Amino acid sequence: MGTAPAPGVSDGESDLADDELRVYQHLLEQGPQSSAALAGALGTTEDRAEVLAGGLLRRCLAALDPDAAGPRWRAVSPYTAAAELLGPEEHVLHRRLEDLARVRQRLSALIPLYEESSRRSTDSGAIEVVTSRDRVMLLIGDAAARCTEEVLTVQPGGGRPAGHLERALPRDLDLLRRGVRLHTLYQHTARYSPSTQEYVQAVVAAGGEVRTLGELFHKMLVFDGSTAFLPVWDNPDAAVVLREPSAVAYLRSVFAHAWDLAEPFAASYSAATALQLHTSLAGSLASGMKDEVIARRLGMSLRTCRRHVAELMAELGAESRFQAGYLLALRTHAQDAAVPAPPDAPPSRSGPGG
Question: PANTHER family annotated for this entry (predicted)?
Answer without folding.
Answer: HTH-TYPE TRANSCRIPTIONAL REGULATOR TRMBL2 (PTHR34293:SF1)
